[in-house]
Every structure is written in structure tokens, then in C-alpha cells.
């Protein structure tokens, strides 16, 4: 059986990297030859997780067709979020928890998607269904990914399935998930140490909405002013990247992980679509997003409805 690579989306977050490691482990146990890789360097939060559970960091790739013919995708399906040469590869497996958009294959594909808070929750279910034991280290990665994606189970994307998974995984990983979760989330909120480019690209995803190329980045912090005080420089970086990559609209969302509120810096057009989507007014390139913490559930669908 030929080797395959498994990876999450570009600008990978904790779930994207951990899910690749988890799914590669499961597939290897099921008889596949699979290696987990990443489409970008880990964030500070992800580094904290990998260090905490003594997990090696996956190697980073920019293309895959030079070494494999087939790949497995986790935590994404949209081609613009995937590896640069995805059109040259055969996708054999997808495990996801997002919308399905612009995705098609020439051959039959294994596709598993559930509307839960984290793709690692789905992989946790798959381990149980296949009766594959979850090692302590891997349980820690799964737990961390769910905490990250659901903001410690506070996000509106959180389901009862996620909650039950967290409780079970915390026991296997032998950690207090609330105490550990706060430390983990705070580890990823030091924005002062990050460059402007890293901030606007660190957790960014590209979407096509109504024919518009939309880029949405999210920055977790304990004080949104740490991001907003750099607005002028961030807008300049957003403008340069939008022109280089052809983005029509670029949002950088700063989310307070403690009070579950956000504010977004907006570049490009149509700005009126952003105002309509969130029923708020953009002032000085900034829009308040009270109660918004989830890009998947509270940003992408609202913008898509307006732009489509």
C-alpha cells in the first residue's frame, strides 16, 4: 500500500495539527501507511500543547505531489485552504466539521463530517467505533484540540458530543481539563511577541462567497486592545496581502477568550455586506462583534448569506 500524507488546513490551528497526528495514528493502526504533516508552523498555543504532551512536531510541507499520489484531509475540505498542489493529488479520506464547498473528486472517497465543535471529537468517535485504544499522549492532543476549537466548551459550536469527549479524554490524559485548558488558551494569547504578518495569517482561512474572495483571520487574546492598538500596521499588512493574493474582503477578528466578545478590523469591499451581516456599523475600519467567538458558526454563515 502506497504511503499517504494527512494534514489539516493552511495556517494550521491546534485542531488542524493535532487531528492530523491523531488520524495518522488511527489509519496506521488500521493498516494504512500514513504520515501526519502540517501546512504551516504551529502557533504558540499548539507549541504549548505539543511540548506539554511531549509530542514531536510534524514536518511542514508546501507541496505533496513530489512524494505521494494520495492524501487524507482533516479539518478542511475547501481546495483553497489545502496544500498548494491539491489538484495534482487524489484525496482518499476526509474527516471534517465544516461546511462543504467547492469539493469534488474523480474517484469515490471516504468522507466523514459531523456538525460538532471540533474535528478531533469526530476522530475520538472513530477510535471508539474501531475499538482502537487511545494512548494517554494522543488523548491529551484530542482534548487540547477540542478545548481550543470550543474555547473551553464556551463556543456556540460546542455540542453534548464535544462535552462527553472532553470528560472521557481528560481521564485518559490524566489532566484537569478546566485548569489545563485555561493555561493552554492563555499560552496562545501573547500577541505582542508576534509580527504583523503572523497576526493576520496565524489562523486565517480563505473562502469564496458570492463570487468574492474573502479572507478571515482570528486572533485569540485576553485583551482585544492588544490587537487594536496595532490596527494601522495590521491594516497595511492586510492591504498588501489582499492585493498580492487577490482578496476582495479581509477580516481580522480579535476574540477575548475570557469574556467571549470580539472586534474585527475590516479591509476591502463590500464593507456594507459586513455591516449587514452583523447588524453593526463599521467605524474607523473596526466593527464590534459582541458574543461572537466562532468563525465557523457566527461569521462565515452570516457573511455567506449576505454575499450570496
Summary?
With 308 residues, this protein is an alpha/beta fold. Helix content is 39%, strand content 19%. A hairpin with a 2-residue loop joins strand 6 and strand 7 (212-221).
Describe the structure.
There is one protein chain. The protein is of the alpha/beta class. 39% of the residues lie in helices and 19% in strands. The chain has helices spanning 14-29, 44-52, 119-129, 136-150, 160-173, 177-187, 196-201, 225-228, 231-245, 271-278, 295-298, 300-307; strands at residues 4-7, 34-36, 70-74, 90-96, 110-113, 204-209, 212-221, 249-256, 261-268, 286-289. It has a five-stranded parallel β-sheet. Helix 2 packs across helix 6, helix 3 (119-129) runs antiparallel to helix 4 and helix 4 (136-150) packs antiparallel against helix 5 (160-173). The protein is globular and about 55 Å long. The model has no long low-confidence stretch (mean pLDDT 96).
**What is the count of β-strands?**
10
Largest sheet report: 5 strands, parallel
Shape: globular
Order of helices and strands: EHEHEEEHHHHHEEHHEEHEHH
How large is the count of helical segments? 12
Distance between the termini: 43 Å
- The radius of gyration computed from the alpha-carbon positions, rounded to a whole number of angstroms, is 19 Å
Helix content: 25-40%
Which structural class do the helices and strands define? alpha/beta
Strand order of the largest sheet: 2-1-3-4-5
Query: Which stretches of 5+ consecutive residues score pLDDT under 50?
Result: none
- How large a portion of the residues is in β-strands, by DSSP E? 15-25%
Average pLDDT value? 96
